[in-house]
Write a structure and sequence with these properties.
Order of helices and strands: HHHHHHHHHHHHH
Strand content: under 5%
Number of strands: 0
Number of helices: 13
Helix content: 55-70%
Radius of gyration: 23 Å
Distance between the termini: 60 Å
Shape: globular
Largest sheet: none
Length: 363
């Protein structure tokens, strides 16, 4: 019904309402991040993984837009169900058979979504255990080579959260956490292509940390300053600081000839997917993500910052543990010390750190 699409943007929500809704539903993109965590199981992941993610994102985004337009066209937006959109919309028109089919589809696909979300968690715990940030118990394999301990632990935690924590409290936090993770991913991409000078090994990380802080401050101030002169002045100042960080990064930390630079055990490989317009593209991604985070209420932003401070403190404290004693890290460092360009047994170049499947030597 075309009349249901007028006005196209409801005046009581406006553009701010659209952005607020995008922030709340961003957890729907978590699955593509999960795929990245399983890169070690893909064939030729350097090429196939980025293509698969980009193609799937484009296809799913188009399907989501078409579904949203269809749903809002079926009934007035004020009557759309918040928990069961299409089944309720079909019932609104008296199509019980279509409502039942749609409801069955939702129930049938829900376990698949849970499986995808759950699948990568044991691998992430394994990577943290290998880097010394979690007990080695999370990296132990059973007789079949599976991460039984990590899988059982993650499963119990997810069951407890799903049972006792209302989804309304998790919705914004999950979406905001996904946006923060994507900011970290964009930052990591820049750090893998821009290498700091030898006399300032942490310069690139410091500049990118400054850019993230400036982008977050600018987004929050822009959204919550209510157009005041002082707030707008701080927005401009934060924007200038962010631009300065990017300029200094390009000047003092030039782009490396190969992905990873000295972080690679063996350099010179050109088989990785090249993100266009580096570092502008990931910086724009960080800016968009922080702007979506800023759409949360100030209480939600404060809770997110508190959680981020706790995890940062955990990282700093556990970093004191010696990762040099870990067998996998030590073996890679020993390989890196060899002169000349070497490859692993299967012909693939080795990264100093790996977040994928357990390394054969760890079993």
């Amino acid at each position: 019904q075309p009349r249901n699409l007028t006005p196209f943007i409801p005046p009581e929500f406006g553009t701010a309402g659209i952005l607020r809704g995008a922030t709340s539903c961003f957890f729907g993109y978590l699955g593509f991040d999960e795929i990245s965590c399983l890169a070690g199981e893909a064939k030729n992941p350097q090429k196939n993984l980025p293509k698969g993610i980009l193609y799937t994102l484009m296809l799913v985004t188009v399907l989501y837009i078409m579904a949203a337009i269809t749903l809002t066209g079926m009934q007035p937006y004020s009557t759309i169900s918040e928990v069961s959109g299409f089944p309720a919309a079909f019932q609104y028109h008296g199509w019980e058979w279509a409502s039942n089919i749609s409801a069955f589809g939702e129930i049938f696909t829900l376990p698949i979504v849970v499986l995808i979300v759950f699948m990568a968690q044991p691998r992430l715990q394994y990577a943290l255990a290998m880097d010394g940030f979690l007990p080695s118990w999370f990296g132990e394999l059973n007789s079949r080579g599976n991460l039984h301990n990590g899988t059982s632990f993650a499963g119990v935690i997810m069951i407890l959260v799903a049972t006792f924590v209302p989804f309304t409290h998790l919705n914004d936090m999950i979406s905001a956490a996904v946006l923060v993770a994507f900011c970290m991913t964009n930052t990591s991409l820049i750090l893998m292509w821009h290498e700091p000078p030898e006399d300032h090994p942490n310069l690139a990380m410091q500049l990118m940390g400054g850019f993230n802080v400036a982008a977050f401050a600018m987004s929050v101030l822009w959204t919550h300053s209510n157009g005041g002169f002082f707030g707008q002045t701080l927005v401009i100042l934060a924007g200038v600081c962010g631009i300065a960080c990017v300029v200094l990064l390009c000047k003092w930390c030039p782009q490396t000839a190969s992905f990873g630079g000295s972080c690679m055990a063996y350099g010179g490989h050109d088989g990785y997917f090249h993100t266009p317009f580096m570092p502008i593209t990931p910086c724009l991604g960080i800016l968009v993500n922080t702007y979506l985070i800023s759409q949360l209420e100030l209480e939600g932003i404060a809770a997110l910052l508190f959680y981020f401070c706790i995890t940062t403190l955990f990282f700093v404290l556990t970093k004191r543990g010696s990762t040099q004693s870990l067998p996998y890290i030590r073996s890679i460092q020993e390989l890196k010390s060899h002169e000349g360009r070497e490859e692993s047994a299967n012909g693939e170049l080795l990264l100093l750190r790996s977040i994928s499947l357990p390394h054969p030597s760890s079993s």
